[in-house]
Fold this sequence. Notes:
Elements: H1 2-14, H2 18-36, H3 42-61, H4 67-76, H5 86-89, H6 94-101, H7 106-114, H8 120-137, H9 141-162, H10 164-185, H11 195-201, H12 208-223, H13 225-251
Helix pairs in contact: 1-2, 1-7, 2-3, 3-4, 4-7, 6-10, 8-9, 8-13, 9-10, 9-12, 10-12, 12-13
Organism: Pristionchus pacificus (Parasitic nematode worm)
Transmembrane segments: 18-35, 55-76, 82-101, 108-135, 155-181, 193-214, 226-247
Keywords: Membrane, Mitochondrion, Transmembrane, Transmembrane helix
Amino acid sequence: xxxxxxxxxxxxxxxxxxxxxxxxxxxxxxxxxxxxxxxxxxxxxxxxxxxxxxxxxxxxxxxxxxxxxxxxxxxxxxxxxxxxxxxxxxxxxxxxxxxxxxxxxxxxxxxxxxxxxxxxxxxxxxxxxxxxxxxxxxxxxxxxxxxxxxxxxxxxxxxxxxxxxxxxxxxxxxxxxxxxxxxxxxxxxxxxxxxxxxxxxxxxxxxxxxxxxxxxxxxxxxxxxxxxxxxxxxxxxxxxxxxxxxxxxxxxxxxxxxx
Length: 259
């Protein structure tokens, strides 16, 4: 399946034909349904199919202006157009969750690069603010994990606007680490958490999201220094939101088998 997705990604990068792009969208939907059919999470599959195919139809019909840019962002689940992803992730676990947050986004990212809209950078900044504010209201660990992944992906797309090669490298790094981590951090439907999860997603130095954000910030620094200072302040806000995990782990004794 990974080889097939890499082939679709290469195909979407080699052409700018709308019909071929739409075919790639359709094949990615089929791949996701094929991978999740054994889990019997039918509500997630129906939601995903309806959302993706409706957006795919709009992509074909509204092939003018900046509408396609917004449609692709919504298909990927980039903040602030990410609210639909929770209806999918609530019923998928382990490797299927990892796939949804990484490989499923790869062909869409390469298409977004080809039709990017520079003013969309401000929309991505707004999306980060929405993510941080939403983290304060979430209590489910799995949703916080998904939201953290969405936020990191926003940083990667902002890097795409500045430097394509650096961002492709960052995405590959992010994808490989998510493959190793998410399967461990979402073992079951219970709100399962440990100290490794906290240290990884708390933006600790030399952790997963730390490098993604530092490299993206270094690219933004070339573009706008005031924006970089604002982003550093936002990273501090991110640490505050994940301190919810830190407090829970500090004051309660957790058993893996029971809440």
